[in-house]
Design a protein that fits this description.
This protein is mainly alpha-helical. The chain has helices at residues 3-25, 27-37, 42-45, 47-70, 72-96, 99-126, 133-158, 167-172, 175-187, 190-209, 227-231, 234-255, 257-265, 269-293, 299-317, 323-330, 332-336, 339-348, 355-364, 368-382, 385-388, 390-405.
């Protein structure tokens, strides 16, 4: 490729990091919104995360096989087409206000995003001069952080209405009035997701028309690493648990933040969405600050410190009254920011020819995002939302334990993020 074409190719692949970041972080808006529009319990609303992250788990290995056979470009186009299809399915789902239809649409979106994430991380790493690979991956990941910040803000403006009826208000309404209110809430997702679908289709068209290098990777020695030998790597298995608990905690904390803010801090949903956006701005800043701090403090020690701080903040979430507890939760994303790439890199460190299969195992650990929010929602329905935040506390306690087990590791290079 020419230098100009190379820059355009990197820009296109970088846009993928932004797109799946928007999709993923809109879940924190969809959980409270669909809970209201479809009249769900906390457990039922957690299925937004369950179906989204389950798709990542299901698609991980097929995506890898597809990439191996057809290459990165076709895999990326397939991912974008699935993403767009799922976004367009939000229109009929909202029209009939059927939660199971929303879940199917989300599963299709997440399947597309799972393919994109599986392809884009290694592809951009190899798309150009090897000595600038670290810059390219960090640059692309910064747009993922930007999306994490913007999604709650935009969702709060264009999806959340700020209206939440009390039980008395619902009982005072006629069936037609209540139905019109609920349908209006459901319809709010139509235009935003049609726009998302059109943008995603546009990117798919540009990638289809753009000449991209067909980078294929295959190592003869890698095929010798059996799955049985992978499971014998104790630190890898512990690391898969770390990914499971990290992604689960991240999904649970962000998805139930608006509900927690309302019932513990008496904060209205639109303001809560804005506060979540600020918290995710801290997440993005944490990635940049963490990369600087790691020049002076070992990544493992930083992981120990950050996981311990998050445990303290979450203790405050169910012991401190009022808005102070909400502000404590807002601090958690900053200290989550370095966890995924650090856990991932610690888990595959020193595995050599087993690295590719080990990476697949770790990516499958993302299914924690389906399990932990469900457990949190269930605990919330059985007791209350405050006590439910004990679940992510346990998650960060596990990460603290995993970091302690790796305390002797001195140097580490982050290779991927989520």
């Amino acid at each position: 490729m020419t230098k100009k074409n190379g820059f355009f190719a990197v820009a296109l692949i970088t846009s993928l990091f932004f797109l799946w970041g928007i999709s993923l972080n809109l879940n924190s808006i969809l959980v409270p919104h669909l809970k209201k529009a479809c009249q769900l319990t906390d457990t039922q609303s957690s299925f937004v995360d369950v179906f989204y992250y389950l798709a990542y788990f299901v698609i991980a290995i097929p995506a890898g096989l597809f990439m191996h056979k057809y290459g990165y470009k076709k895999a990326i186009i397939l991912g974008l087409l699935l993403f767009a299809t799922g976004a367009f399915l939000f229109y009929p789902a909202a029209q009939i206000r059927l939660f199971s239809f929303f879940l199917f649409a989300l599963f299709v979106i997440a399947s597309g995003c799972g393919i994109l994430e599986t392809a884009a991380n290694p592809y951009i790493n190899n798309l150009g001069d090897p000595e600038h690979a670290t810059f390219r991956i960090n640059f692309a990941q910064s747009f993922n952080g930007l999306a994490a910040t913007l999604a709650p803000f935009l969702g709060g403006i264009f999806i959340l209405s700020g209206k939440d009826l009390t039980k008395a208000e619902r009982l005072a309404m006629s069936p037609d009035q209540l139905n019109n209110y609920l349908q209006g809430e459901s319809d709010a997702v139509k235009i935003p997701y049609i726009i998302i679908g059109l943008v995603v289709l546009s990117i798919a068209f540009l990638i289809w028309k753009t000449s991209l290098p067909d980078i294929r990777e295959h190592s003869e020695t890698d095929s010798q690493a059996s799955w049985g030998s992978i499971f014998q790597e104790k630190n890898l298995v512990l690391g898969a648990g770390g990914i499971f608990f990290y992604v689960g905690a991240q999904a649970a904390i962000t998805s139930f933040f608006i509900r927690y803010s309302k019932y513990v801090g008496a904060i209205q949903e639109k303001r809560a969405a804005a506060l979540l956006g600020l918290a995710m701005l801290g997440f993005m800043a944490g990635r940049f600050i963490g990369s600087v701090v790691m020049r002076f403090v070992s990544p493992v020690k930083l992981l120990i410190i950050y996981s311990a701080i998050n445990c303290i903040l979450l203790v405050m979430a169910f012991t401190v009254d009022g808005q102070l507890s909400v502000y404590a939760i807002m601090g958690v994303p900053f200290f989550m920011s370095i966890m995924f790439p650090t856990i991932f890199s610690l888990s595959i460190s020193g595995l050599g020819e087993k690295t590719k299969k080990a990476s697949s195992l770790l990516i499958m650990g993302i299914v924690g995002g389906a399990v932990i929010p469900f457990v949190l929602g269930r605990v919330s329905d059985m007791s209350d939302i405050r006590k439910a935040y004990l679940i992510p506390l346990i998650s960060f306690a596990y990460i603290f334990y995993f970091a302690l087990k790796n305390i002797k590791v001195k140097e580490l290079r982050a290779v991927v993020t989520h």
